[in-house]
Amino acid sequence: MENNEKLLSAIFNVGRLIREEIHKSNCLADFTQAEIEVLKFLHGKKKTTMRAIADYLHIKPSSVTPVIDNLVKKGDIKRAQKKDDRRVVFIELTPKGLKCLQKKYKSIHKTIKKIFGGLNNKDKKTLIRIFEKIHEKNI
């Protein structure tokens, strides 16, 4: 159990460090993490549904609504109803949303580079491989 406790502590500590650095850098000013995740999910997609976004975020569709509402108000995404079934609502990234996402990600990348800058390339590749392995196993 000792290794599991050390692993849990390390994960929490690194997660907290990343959140603190991102907060200090102010790169997510005016956006919640969920909003950035939605923009990221929409990037490269023509359009998607609220259900797909909820599934991606692992939350209930009703919990996605306020996130979508905020992004619509900001002009970063838009809603479009399916022509033959008005019950189906598609969500699309706007050009403004894409520009915003690119700007935010540039800032986030600087912060991540700062946090993980002490690792050599071999360590980074190992860490990426481990994270990808964990993600693949649990999806």
Q: CATH topology, anyone?
A: Arc Repressor Mutant, subunit A
**What is the count of DSSP helices, taking H or I runs of 4+ residues?**
6
- What helical percentage do the residues reach? 55-70%
Any idea what the shape is? globular
**Distance between the ends:** 25 Å
> Radius of gyration over alpha carbons?
18 Å
SSE order, as H and E?
HHEHHEEHH
Mean pLDDT: 88
CATH superfamily: Winged helix-like DNA-binding domain superfamily/Winged helix DNA-binding domain
Number of strands: 3
- Give a quick account of the main beta sheet: strands, pairing sense, barrel closure: 3 strands, antiparallel
Total discrete domains: 1
Strand fraction band? Answer: 5-15%
List low-pLDDT spans.
Answer: none
Helix/strand-derived category reads alpha+beta
* CATH architecture level-2 label: Orthogonal Bundle
Report the CATH C-level class. Mainly Alpha
How are strands sequenced across the largest beta sheet?
1-3-2
